[in-house]
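Q: I'm building a small set of examples for a reading group on sequence design. Run inverse folding on the following structure and report the sequence directly after it, with nothing in between.
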């Protein structure tokens, strides 16, 4: 058995984890008025980012999937296809990578996405890792 592999999630993995088995706009349903219980964003973060775990988790126990910071994904950014796709793969290359989650406004639903050049950095960009088990 080799060591674990650490990597960024694909965009599809990130959204799957954010949704946590739900089909609603947010992992906690469609009621935006509940957002303060699950997310930090411009209106409630008091100008700072917060430690993970201060808000409620999604149904799978993952914290801060909605809000706090944009999170890097491993996929290169491109516009979505108009055709339905299962487990979509991003393009092989590109000028920008996908960011998911958000922080600025209340538009923090599971499908929100943005992009940034891989050299991009800032206090509003973070990441979470996928740990693949030893093989």
């Amino acid at each position: 058995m080799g060591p674990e592999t650490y990597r960024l999630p694909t965009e599809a993995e990130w959204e799957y984890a954010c949704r946590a088995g739900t089909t609603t706009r947010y992992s906690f349903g469609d009621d935006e008025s509940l957002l303060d219980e699950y997310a930090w964003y411009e209106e409630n973060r008091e100008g700072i980012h917060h430690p993970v775990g201060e808000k409620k988790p999604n149904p799978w126990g993952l914290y801060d999937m909605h809000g706090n910071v944009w999170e890097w994904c491993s996929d290169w950014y491109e516009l979505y296809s108009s055709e339905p796709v299962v487990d979509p793969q991003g393009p092989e290359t590109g000028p920008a990578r996908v960011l998911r989650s958000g922080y600025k406004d209340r538009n923090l639903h599971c499908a929100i996405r943005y992009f940034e050049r891989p050299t991009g950095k800032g206090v509003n960009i973070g990441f979470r890792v996928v740990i693949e088990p030893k093989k």
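The chain has a mean pLDDT of 93.
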